[in-house]
Design a protein that fits this description.
32% of the residues lie in helices and 28% in strands. Helix 6 packs across helix 7. It folds into two domains: 179 residues, no CATH class; 134 residues, no CATH class. By secondary structure, it is α+β, with helices and mostly antiparallel strands. The strands form six sheets. Strands 1, 2, 3, 5, 6, 9 and 10 form a seven-stranded antiparallel beta sheet that branches. It is globular. It contains nine helices and 17 strands.
Length: 349
C-alpha cells in the first residue's frame, strides 16, 4: 500500500523516445524540468503515483549475470547514492529504453524520470525513483470565460492524468535484493511486445508473502480447474468444493504449510502427489520458488477469493452456489435421459 500525501517531487526530467526500428528519433532534454506553476506538482503526483496506491504485487531487478549489469538498477543505484548527476542518469535510462525499442508494436512517447521524497510504502517512509512513459494522446476541450463571452479551445495531443500508460516505482529499500519495484503496463500487452517489464526493466517477481500466497492459490486453482481432469475424475461440485476448502484454509490460517494443506484440503494421496508435481512444473516454467511454508497474506487471499468460482451453472435455468460439503449433492440421470442434481439440507432460510 502506498501513501503519497506528503510526497515531494525533488527532480524531474523528460525525454522523447521513438521507435528505433522505424528510424524515429530519441530526443534528450538539455536540463531538468522545473514545475513553476503551483498546481502542477499535485497534478503530476496524481498522474504518476495514484495508479500504484492499492497495488500489492511487487518485483525486483534481475539479470542473467550479475545484477549490476541491469542498466536501470545501475542508474537507480547511482541516483540513490548521489554518485551521478540526476539529469545525466535519466538520459542514460532514456538511451537504454531507446536501444530496446525495436518491436514494430512499440509506440513512441515521452519518458519521465522523477525522484520522490517521503513516499510511504507498507508503512515505511522512503524515497523513490519513478520512470513513466506516455504513449496515448487524447483530444481535450477547454472552455474559457472573459466576462461576457465564452471561448472554446482544444488540445489535440493532451495527456489524460487518469490513465498512466507505463510506469514503475523503484523504492530505496532492499538494495541487495534488487530494490522493491512496482510496475504498470497498460499498452502493448501481447507477449511479443512486453518490452517494458522483460527487456527494459528486467524484473522478477519478489518472493514476499503476498506473491507466495497469490502464486500458491493460482497454482492450486489451475490444478483443480485443468490438470486434475487428466488424472482424477472430478465432478463440478467436487471441484468447487476443493476450491472452497482451499480458500477456507487460507482464511483460517496465519501460516501456510504444504503438508498440512495437502492433508486438510486435498485429502487424497494420489491427488497430493499430482499437485506437488504440478507445483514443481509451475516453478520451473515461471522460474520462481513457492516455499513449503510461509506467512499468509490476507490481501492476496481476498484478491484470489474474488476469482474463485463457487457457482454451478445449469443451462440457463439455474445457478447453484456451493459453499460447503460436496457430498450433500448427488448427481444422476433419469429414465428420460435428463440430468439432475439432488441436494440434501437440514434447514431452509
Amino acid at each position: 500500500m502506498i501513501t503519497y500525501f506528503e510526497s515531494v517531487i525533488e527532480s524531474l526530467s523528460i525525454h522523447y523516445i521513438g521507435n528505433k526500428s522505424k528510424n524515429e528519433l530519441c530526443i534528450f532534454s538539455k536540463e531538468p524540468l522545473f514545475l513553476l506553476d503551483e498546481h502542477l506538482p499535485s497534478l503530476v503526483l496524481e498522474y504518476f503515483i495514484k495508479p500504484f496506491e492499492k497495488m500489492q504485487e511487487s518485483f525486483s531487478f534481475s539479470h542473467s549475470g550479475t545484477i549490476e549489469l541491469n542498466e536501470v538498477f545501475h542508474y537507480a543505484k547511482e541516483i540513490f547514492h548521489n554518485k551521478a548527476d540526476f539529469h545525466e542518469a535519466t538520459a542514460g535510462i532514456a538511451r537504454h529504453l531507446y536501444t530496446i525499442s525495436t518491436h514494430p508494436n512499440i509506440k513512441s512517447g515521452e519518458l519521465y524520470v522523477a525522484r520522490f521524497k517521503n513516499i510511504l510504502v507498507d508503512g515505511v517512509e522512503t524515497d523513490a525513483i519513478g520512470i513513466f512513459k506516455s504513449e496515448v494522446k487524447e483530444p481535450y476541450l477547454k472552455v474559457e470565460n472573459d466576462g461576457d463571452f465564452f471561448q472554446l479551445q482544444y488540445e489535440l495531443n493532451g495527456i489524460n492524468i487518469k490513465k498512466l500508460d507505463k510506469g514503475c516505482l523503484i523504492f530505496n529499500i532492499e538494495e541487495e535484493q534488487g530494490y522493491k519495484v512496482m510496475v504498470i503496463d497498460q499498452t502493448n500487452k501481447n507477449s511479443e511486445a512486453l518490452y517494458w517489464i522483460d527487456l527494459f526493466l528486467q524484473l522478477k517477481v519478489r518472493n514476499d508473502e503476498f506473491n507466495q500466497t497469490n502464486n500458491l492459490l493460482t497454482v492450486y486453482k489451475n490444478f483443480i480447474s485443468e490438470a486434475a481432469d487428466n488424472a482424477i475424475e472430478l465432478t463440478k461440485p467436487e471441484k468447487i468444493d476443493l476450491l472452497n476448502r482451499s480458500i477456507r484454509y487460507f482464511k483460517e490460517k496465519d501460516r501456510f504449510d504444504l503438508d498440512e494443506f495437502g492433508s486438510e484440503v486435498i485429502g487424497h494421496e494420489h491427488g497430493i502427489k499430482l499437485f506437488m508435481q504440478y507445483k514443481e512444473d509451475f516453478e520451473q516454467r515461471h522460474q520462481t520458488d513457492i516455499e513449503d511454508r510461509f506467512e499468509i497474506s490476507n490481501t492476496a487471499v481476498k484478491k484470489q477469493a474474488r476469482i474463485y468460482k463457487s457457482v454451478l451453472k445449469l443451462d440457463r435455468n439455474f445457478h447453484i452456489y456451493i459453499h460447503g460439503n460436496s457430498e450433500l449433492i448427488e448427481r444422476g440421470v433419469d429414465n428420460d435421459g435428463r440430468k439432475y442434481y439432488k441436494i440434501y439440507y437440514q434447514e431452509e432460510s
